[in-house]
Specification:
Rossmann fold, globular, nine-stranded mixed β-sheet, alpha/beta
Length: about 240
């Protein structure tokens, strides 16, 4: 399997020596989840890096970003155009946070600032789609998050996969072609701690303290990565 990773942000230079880059975080995650025979190619979209052709890939993953998916920044506009073309071509797409939102936007759904404010730390969700290969048997899932934008309506023909009160559309799929989650399966507690410390003043002390404490409880990023691997490999259709 060949995965094209469209990397939509750069790591803060202070943390880059530890985590390398966002694309590398996903590569490590998928390798840990069992994608040992996969090939990973990383392209940085803010620097206008794209493959000559997407046809050689089995799937395309869109990472998170500090940018808004609805931004009119030239690189975001180009990314939306590219993703719309991939949707028309029925390419398998995986979306994470910003990627989850941008794909929903390209599908015609509303995306904007979350009415509930920032989502940070560890969040738990109800899982609604038991028929997704490797779905959690207890119908619960927890992921590390960092976002102030959300998908505000389910895209047409999409299936809701996960939700909670703060984020009613926390994950969705469209047929065998789109699998998106708001949370960050690639995040580690150390990286979430770095982001929380960086935004401490912005978040306020009560939210910061609560989010930091939540990181002690672990998350299901590896399980979500395994679901994504099964999705790309069509394990549910074999």
């Amino acid at each position: 399997m060949k995965l094209c990773i469209l990397e939509n942000d750069d790591l803060d230079p202070a943390i880059a020596p530890t985590y390398t880059r966002y694309g590398a975080m996903f590569e490590r995650l998928f390798l840990d989840a069992g994608a040992i025979d996969w090939q990973f190619d990383i392209f940085n979209t803010p620097r206008a890096e794209y493959p000559v052709s997407f046809a050689r890939y089995d799937a395309v993953l869109l990472t998170g970003s500090k940018a808004d998916s609805f931004s009119q920044e030239p690189w975001v506009v180009e990314l939306r155009q590219r993703v719309s073309e991939l949707l028309d071509q029925k390419m398998k797409l995986l979306g994470i946070c910003f990627g989850h939102q941008l794909i929903a936007l390209c599908l015609g759904a509303k995306v904007g600032r979350a009415p509930q404010g920032w989502g940070v730390g560890r969040m738990s969700y109800d899982w609604h789609a038991a028929d997704i290969p490797l779905a959690p048997e207890d119908k619960k899932m927890s992921l590390l998050v960092s976002h102030q934008d959300q998908v505000l309506e389910l895209p047409e023909e999409a299936t809701l996969l996960a939700s909670n009160n703060h984020c009613p559309i926390a994950a969705y799929s469209v047929g065998d072609e789109v699998f998106c989650v708001q949370g960050h399966p690639e995040f580690e507690a150390g990286y979430s701690s770095f982001l929380l410390e960086k935004r401490r003043d912005r978040l306020g002390e009560p939210m910061y303290t609560s989010a930091m404490a939540s990181l002690q409880h672990g998350h299901d990023g590896l399980s979500v990565a395994k679901m994504m691997i099964a999705f790309v490999e069509d394990q549910g259709n074999t």
